[in-house]
Amino acid sequence: MTENPSIPRISSVIKTLTYLMVGSVFLYLLNNYLVYWQGLPGPYNLFAHLGWFGEDSTVTLADEKINQGWMQFASYLVVLILVAFYAVKSSTVSLRQSSERLQALASYLVRVAFWAVMLIGFVDMMISFLRIEKMLEFWVGDELIVQLGRPSFRGIYVHYPLLVSSFVFAFIFRKISFSWLALMVVLSEFLIVLTRFVFSYEQAFQGDLVRFWYAALFLFASAYTLIHEGHVRVDVLYAGFSRVKKASANIIGSVFLGIPLCWVILMHGLGGKGNSINSPLLSYEISQSGYGMYVKYLMAGFLVVFAVTMIVQFCSYLLLNIAELIEPDDQQKEDPGEFTVLPDAASPEGMRMNAGTEMRES
User: Fold this and answer.
1) Which of 49, 117, 130, 204 is deepest in the core (most CB within 10 A)?
2) Exposed, middle or buried, 54 (CB in 10 Å: 0-12/13-18/19+)?
3) Measured at the alpha carbon of residue 114, what is the angle toward residues 111 and 118, in degrees to the nearest 5?
4) How far apart are the C-alpha atoms of 118 and 126, rounded to whole Å?
5) Domain boundary assignment for the chain
6) Contact 325, 252 (CB under 8 A)
7) 58-67: long-range contacts, CB 8 A cutoff, minimum separation 24
């Protein structure tokens, strides 16, 4: 069969748009950090200052901020151009291969999140336990004890280094299972029951640890389950679809439901300094219970991890299903809805098939 000459061009356009989508997600996060954490103006405030959004704009920037805004805008454009250039130049890479690369990226991000919650959960729990039991003085000085009681200090000097080390652990240990995190949740809950009813001992950090790990298990495992096709489908029609119809349904679901939902989470939670995700992250929000764990602000960040990993995996899923339509795999099994016409038994080919069958039976 002669390949349609327009297919490579279509594949290149689809890969470019998909890579730009993934690149835009990380640029959005970077811009959020530079604007709300570092005080840079960002393209939006720059354009609002120039009156591009109407004459009623109240944003006024100094000359230094204007220059910084243009530098941000130019750097973002450069990144997007490089991403598009990479997608165009990788013309020899099929859509399936591109899907595998994005899936590998999503898997890596999920592993980073897994190691982060494991390490931060253990270390922060131990700090809280030692503070309550007055054993922290044995390990650190009085000044450091006071500092560890400040959420911002514990976040910057304890949580962030553990988060950075999680990138290394995720690169080294590439085979993890979220069943381990589920096991840790069960063991933590069992420890609460044991200490409460047997030793009459219960502290706030015990419940905080269970909620911390359980929230991570629920949100991070969503992308992990999507990577491994583990989500339960409730559509009774999907099971009877042909391969082409299944791919079409997955494409429509990814483009019009999955990816937009994740963008809504990001834009609603990170759209302003006081929004539902930015506010607890910037203020290092903690629970009101005394001597509990200082990880409540990180649980708001779980939504960012969920949205980003799901977008990357939805893009991978999109490429894979488009490949089912325009780049059929030669080794793909036949569609269950199709059938193969066998040769007539009286034909030479049919006689050879019958003779081979009789020999195998004998």
Assistant:
1) 117
2) exposed
3) 140
4) 12
5) 1-93, 95-328
6) no
7) 65/40, 65/41, 66/41
Q: How far apart are CA 147 and CA 136, in angstroms?
A: 12
What is the per-residue pLDDT for 297?
Answer: 94
List all residues 6 or more positions away from 43 whose beta carbon is below 8 Å from its beta carbon. 31, 69, 72, 73, 76
- The amino acid sitting at 16 is T
Distance CA(324)–CA(94), nearest Å, equals: 11
3-state secondary structure 96-139: HHHHHHHHHHHHHHHHHHHHHHHHHHHHHHHHHHHHHCCCHHHC
Using the 8-state DSSP alphabet, how is residue 289 labeled? S
188-196 CB contacts, 8 Å cutoff, 24+ apart:
188/213
The mean pLDDT of the chain is: 85
Joined together, the tokens standing for residue 118 give 């494991």
Assess whether pLDDT exceeds 70 at residue 348: no
Report the Cα–Cα distance between both ends of the chain, in Å, rounded. Answer: 39
Return the CA Rg of the chain.
Answer: 27
> pLDDT value at position 330?
47
**Predicted confidence (pLDDT) per residue in 46-82, tens digit:** 998 888 876 556 778 889 999 999 999 999 999 999 9
Type of residue at 120 = I
Considering only CA atoms, which of 205, 189, 210, 199 is closest in space to residue 130? 205
> Which pTM was predicted?
0.84
Measured CA to CA, the distance from residue 361 to residue 356 in angstroms comes to: 9
Which of helix, strand or coil describes residue 43?
Answer: helix
Do you know the residue count of the chain?
362
